From TrEMBL:
Homodimer. Interacts with FtsZ. GO terms for biological process: division septum assembly; FtsZ-dependent cytokinesis; septin ring assembly. It is found in: Cytoplasm. The keyword Membrane does not apply. InterPro entries: Bac_CellDiv_Activator (IPR053712), Cell_div_ZapA-like (IPR007838), Cell_div_ZapA-like_sf (IPR036192). PANTHER family: CELL DIVISION PROTEIN ZAPA. This is Cell division protein ZapA. It comes from Geobacillus subterraneus.
Length: 91
């Protein structure tokens, strides 16, 4: 099994520099970092008394919630498409 080449990308999230290593494109890594930074900034404005660890956890919980909602919606759409094709919901 061949391993995908890894990319190293420097990003800035909530005022801190990080080097992210992954197999995704640099553009994808930067986009993910920007999303996390934006969410942390947004929650920081709404909850200025939160320390950074709590702010990071709040951000992670929010992003995970958004992800699960999108995943559930995707599954509903797949099931709907399968039903329209005359297939089974599990296809």
């Amino acid at each position: 099994m061949t391993e995908q080449p890894k990319t190293r990308v420097s990003v800035r999230i909530y005022g801190q520099n990080y080097t992210i290593v992954g197999t995704e494109s640099p553009a994808h890594i930067r986009l993910v970092a920007a999303l996390v930074d934006d969410k942390m900034q947004e929650f920081s404005e709404k909850h200025p008394m939160l320390d950074v660890p709590k702010l990071a956890v709040l951000t992670a919980v929010n992003i995970a919630s958004e992800y699960l909602k999108l995943k559930e919606e995707y599954q509903r759409l797949v099931e709907k498409m399968n039903m329209e094709k005359g297939g089974k919901p599990d296809d």
